[in-house]
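Suppose a classmate hands you a notebook page containing two proteins, each written out with its sequence and a corresponding row of structure tokens. How would you begin to make sense of it? This section walks through that situation. The first entry is reproduced here exactly as it would appear on such a page.
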Amino acid sequence: MSDQGPAESEESFVPPFSEAPYGAVLAGIAAIMSSIGTIGIGALMGLVVADVVGRNFLDAPITGVSEIAARAVVAIVFLQVSAAILQKRLTRADFLIRRIQGASPGTVALIETVFSLVGAIVFALIVWASWPKFVDAWATSEFFGVQGVFTIPTWPFRGITLLGAGVAALAALYRMTLEFKAFRGIA
């Protein structure tokens, strides 16, 4: 038996597999992706610090740090966005939601349902737009950087964007079903 109250278990990031197998698998994938993104943040911070130390104290900057950082930040966002969706931590006006919640919980559930639906559509469109670019980057061995100085292939970064947007679309759809069930239960 869990010590969580009804409100806490309802907002749980990873539901029990027996109660919601789809949600449990999706949340597990999102948690793994988010963990990889967190490791990426640490690695990127280490790389930037090493470049600053090398540049300022050793007169030996690390080549390609700005290119790697530019791509890594986008990859990290897409690795972590699905977990943010499932945890209801995506950027939003919480102060407004809390005010409306006090007056009309059904309205909040409806707003969250629509928000999740729009999110699913947006992330599905990102997948749709990113797929041809990923295939092209893979087929042509596209790279970024300065040839002869520093280059890195773009397909892994495009693949992370594609994967992250796909899982985020599924997370938003899952969130939408939960919010719609809550709306039906309240209304």
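The notebook's second entry, a different protein, reads as follows.
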Amino acid sequence: MKRVLALIASVGLIAASLLAADTSGLRKAPEFAFNVPGQGQKLLSQYRGKVVALSFIWTTCPHCQAESKLMSKLQQEYGARGFQAIDVAVNDNADLKVENFAKDFQVNFPVGWALRDQMVAFMGWTSAYYVVPQMVLIDRKGYIHYQTPQRQDENWDKLMKEDAIRQHIEELLSPNDSASGSKSAGSRVALTKKPS
């Protein structure tokens, strides 16, 4: 009887491992290059192993400035657990504005810049019409779990609220999730649909 129970427990652990490794329904984050003043080019893949909140911003946007303040708070709170916030400015002349933006808003994480077309391609959009900030939450293995919709709507508003961002970060940092899609796809789509 003990052997049967041990066998059942082993099968259960194997099944749980397989579920944790299931990334169906999730999109692998494509490689993304951005420039950080004084540090040169960075690659998104350099942050693999961390839960990443990648936000595309305009340095002149009040909503983006508020997002950066929030991300600084979350970086301080969750950084030791493996969280990494990154802001990438895509507005005109962002390369000339990013350094002052980071100083003015006392950002404690990488703030870089990239071309708008790079962001559109990364997000998987077919048009360049969008609102900012745009946020993508990526698990430790490089899969996108949450992505704001291209245009502002109810889902965009829900995802950009601090409590929703915090909940999603906690979920991806949770050892029970293994940050790889062990929860149902339905729970991830409740706030925003990821492009396929």
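A careful reader of the second entry would note: The beta strands are 27-28, 33-36, 40-43, 51-57, 83-89, 111-113, 134-138, 143-147.
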